[in-house]
Amino acid sequence: MSREDLEEFLIAAQESGNSSATVHKKFRNLRAFYRWCEVEEIVDKNPMARIAEPMVTSKPVPVVPDDQIAALLKACSGKDFTARRDTAMIRLWCEAGSPRVSEMVGVTLERLDMRHDQVTVHGKGDKIRTIPFGAKTGQAIDRYLRVRSRHRDAGRLDALWLAERGGALTSSGAYQMLERRCEDAQIPKINPHKLRHLAAHLWADAGGSEGDAMALFGWSSSEMPRRYGRSAQVERAQRAARRVSQADRF
Predict the structure, then answer these.
(1) Model's pTM, two decimal places?
(2) What residues form DSSP beta bridges with 168?
(3) pLDDT (tens digit per residue) in 201-229
(4) Which of 74, 80, 82, 228 has the most CB atoms lying inside 10 A of its own CB?
C-alpha cells in the first residue's frame, strides 16, 4: 500500500458517514500497524509516516431525560425474574461509577457486598474498582437476588446476572435487554454507554469532583470526566447562573 492508497482510504471513511472519532481510530490503527511492519522490516518505508493526523470533532452525547429513565423503569416494574433483574441493572448503571457493559456482565456474587452497599468490578486496563450504590439500587438488587435463588443455574454459576433461559447474561444480552425495554417504554433507544454518560452528568451536576469521578468511573485521563461531563455542561452552567443571579446585586 502506498501513501496515496491510505490517504484515499481515510478520505473514503470520512465521506461514507463515519464520525471523526471513528476515522481517527482507523488512522491510529494503521499507524500502529505500519510502525510494527517497519520494525519487523516487512516494509522498507512506512507509508503512514507523512500522513497528517485527522482532526476529531467533539460531539457531546445527549443526556437521557429523567422522564425517559422513569418510563424505562416503569417498563420493567413487574415481579418476575427479568423484571427484577432488569430494574437492578438499570439502576446500577445510573449510579456514580456506572459500569461498562463488560464490567456489568462480569460481576460475580462474591464481588457484591450488600452489607456495605457496593459492588467491585474488573474493568478496562485490568483495573479493579468499587462502585457504591444507593438505597433504591440496593433494594432492587436484593429483590433480584431473591428471584435469582430460584433460577435453575443459581447454585451452578457465580455470575450475578443470569439469563432467563439459562447461563450467564452476556454483553449482547445486556444490549438486547435495554433495547427491548426501550421498545416496551415507547422511548428512543438507550444503550449502556448513554446511561454511563447520564451517570457522569448526574455526578457533575451534584457538584462531584473530577478527581473522584476518575476513581469511580475507572478513568486514567483527566480528559475523560470533561468529555463525559460535556454532554450537559451548558445546562448545568445555566442552572448555576440562575442560582447566582449576579446582576441582581445592582
Answers:
(1) 0.75
(2) 162
(3) 888 888 888 889 899 999 887 777 766 66
(4) 228
